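Reproducibility note. Readers wishing to regenerate the assembly model reported in the main text can use the exact inputs given here. Chain order matters: entities are listed in the order in which they were concatenated for prediction.
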Amino acid sequence: MNETTSPAAEQQYIRTLRNGLADLPRDRRDMFIADVQAHIDETTDGGIALESALASLGSPKQLAERAHREISLAVPSVAAGARAARILTAGAVAVGVMTAAVIAFFVPFTQAVDRVETGGSGDGVALVTIAQEHGPWIALLGLVPAALAAGSLWLPRRAGRIVLLALAVLMTAIIAAGLTLGSWFAPFTILLWACVLVPQAVSRGLDLSRARGWRVAIAVAAGAPAFLFLVRTSIAPNDAGLVLAIAAGCALLVAALVGIGARFGYFVLAASGALLMVASGSATGWFSLPLWWAGGLYLTLGIVAVVASRVRSDREAQQ
Amino acid sequence: MESTQDRIAVNLRKGILEYGVLALLSRREMYGLELVDELMKRELIAGEGSLYPLLARMRENGLVQPTLQSSPAGRPRRYYAVTSEGSAQLRSFATIWRELVPHVDALLKEPS
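Running the prediction on these inputs yields the following structure tokens for the assembly.
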């Protein structure tokens, strides 16, 4: 065997290759690596330099991309997992941007201590948003989490996942630390966790159209806030509560649809989540944060349900 | 930069390569390097980087099966064999190819 290139080069090649195949089920990944390793061994056994053997295979990144593409064609769950990652990340970026806009321009942040004369509203305290206090450029700061999430889309698979995980942990810590503005990032953060956890599960075969247990879990998670709200409203009814009670009733209906696996129910769930977030963001007062969170939860659950369930034509094509 | 000729060749080969592999393997089992040599001889493949991803897909679809066999080099070799499903697909391709080729030839001969 020619010693002009060290075996370390071979190890590095295989390592880069393995990283590029991180999204594949382990057995497929191992089989492909074994094929390539056998090829390298055959070539060097035949007296060819390791350098040329690796060069003729092409860059490990490109080889991994090609392998991923071909195997995705034959293993629908792999393609579904990649699609889930793209859609969930895009959703996280959108929610992140919305959050940045809301906290900068709509959330009352500081109270002006001097009582301001407002035209007979009886409410003498002026609430200012961050943008009013510090200028609109402050919104750019709020965009940093969304920008980081967006950046992960341009990185190679494994690096992108690591960035999303790190961001999810960081955002969770910020929320747990109890900073007022941090809690507005809760929907963004649960979407980030979905980005980290769901695509891999889908690649490995998670399919809600067949996994009733997961469907029911999502339905319960979607229905619980609505149910709790209805219980609370029935104990202490009020006018605003009637509209929200009807909304909560609809939420329970949607949750039921999700539980039985009606795919349009997933879309309705996601859409109602988005609507709730928009509605809460423009409202003022103490209840807007819980609505924002509920909306974020519904949006996340809805998107997860959509990407983690395969349409019948997908499954039929597999047979 | 890729010329038009290269692009046409690449696209044509994309559709045919799989069946070239099946045809070679239906004669006898081959190991990776052998397959690469035979395919390069027939200008069906540009480099090894194209073969192994394709073999992975074909294996996933049940068209080929890898086996380990002892070799003169001492290290056991990874051979690829065609499966019955692979042979069936090759036969279907052969039928379609024989029907298509005369039509394409005739089209190319027709006066413009």
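We highlight two features of this model. The interface with chain A takes residues 31-33, 36, 47-50, 52-57, 59-61, 66, 73, 75, 77-78 of chain B (CB under 8 Å). Residues 36 and 48 of chain B are 6 Å apart (CA to CA).
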